């Protein structure tokens, strides 16, 4: 299932980077050439894509290579968000576009089946080691992901135009979030149906910039569309 407008925004001649692709399932079906990059490859990865092993903070591509970068649920695993976003801006063409999605550090839920309040505890390698001895560096980053204010600051530094796009969730994306599949993790008191009822009101008040500012900081899932990388 594809969760964003990338399919509509790209054409078959475009070159798309799926950064932190894991099994490649989210971009395997888009109508474009996709370079699927990850630190490690999932065994059950789709055979539709070409995989390249690489680190998002030091990408093995020349400047101005890609028309679009798709980066879903990866930023929260990255140690240095500035190195990561600046590399993305570097490999994008001047009119290229980044779609970036990650869980809000301060949301009252946890994207990784650990208690939601963990991310409110100050970031600490010692806490992380308690959570997982073998994968401390993985946990430290995904339980203490970058917050929305910092993410916006870094995106603004490397892109001319940054749009908070979470309120434009496509139906299937919204269903994935608050529908039956994830209600145990995502807002436990909000069913897909009641969310449908309040969404028009949220969208209406989202037009007022102060409310949008608040939504951007509190929305459980941060989704940005960043255009015009700064060279
Ligand atoms: C939660 S998974 C998300 C996978 C996929 N994008 C999705 O939405 O289903 C995070 C992935 O990011 C990869 N990753 C973490 N840090 C990375 C980095 N610095 N460079 C490239 N990939 C990275 C991990 O190996 C993992 O496969």
Automatic annotation (TrEMBL):
Signal sequence, start to end: none
Entries under Gene3D superfamilies matching the protein: Vaccinia Virus protein VP39
Domain Methyltransferase type residue range list: 17-99
Swiss-Prot/TrEMBL GO biological process terms: methylation
Domain of life: Archaea
CDD domains: AdoMet_MTases
Alphabetized UniProt keyword annotations: Methyltransferase, Transferase
UniProt xrefs under Pfam families: Methyltransf_11
InterPro entries with a match to the protein in the record: Erg6_SMT_methyltransf (IPR050447), Methyltransf_11 (IPR013216), SAM-dependent_MTases_sf (IPR029063)
GO molecular function terms noted in the UniProt entry: S-adenosylmethionine-dependent methyltransferase activity
PANTHER family assigned: GERANYL DIPHOSPHATE 2-C-METHYLTRANSFERASE, ZGC:194242
Name this polypeptide is given: Methyltransferase domain-containing protein
Native source organism of the sequence: Haloferax marinum
């Amino acid at each position: 299932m594809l969760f964003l407008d990338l399919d509509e925004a790209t054409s078959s001649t475009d070159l798309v980077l799926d950064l932190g692709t894991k099994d490649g399932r989210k971009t395997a079906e888009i109508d474009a050439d996709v370079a699927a990059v990850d630190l490690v490859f999932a065994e059950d990865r789709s055979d539709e894509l070409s995989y390249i092993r690489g680190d998002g903070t030091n990408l093995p591509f020349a400047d101005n290579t890609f028309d679009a970068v798709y980066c879903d649920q990866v930023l929260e695993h990255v140690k240095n968000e500035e190195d990561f976003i600046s590399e993305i801006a570097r490999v994008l063409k001047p009119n290229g576009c980044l779609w970036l999605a990650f869980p809000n550090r301060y949301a009252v839920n946890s994207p990784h089946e650990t208690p939601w309040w963990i991310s409110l505890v100050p970031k600490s390698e010692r806490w992380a080691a308690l959570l997982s001895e073998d994968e401390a560096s993985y946990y430290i980053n995904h339980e203490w992901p970058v917050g929305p204010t910092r993410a916006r600051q870094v995106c603004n530094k490397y892109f001319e135009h940054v749009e908070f796009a979470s309120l434009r969730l496509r139906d299937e994306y919204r269903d994935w979030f608050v529908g039956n599949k994830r209600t145990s993790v995502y807002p436990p008191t909000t069913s897909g149906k009641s969310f449908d009822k309040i969404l028009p009101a949220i969208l209406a008040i989202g037009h007022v910039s102060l409310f949008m500012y608040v939504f951007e900081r509190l929305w459980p899932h941060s989704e940005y569309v960043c255009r015009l990388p700064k060279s």
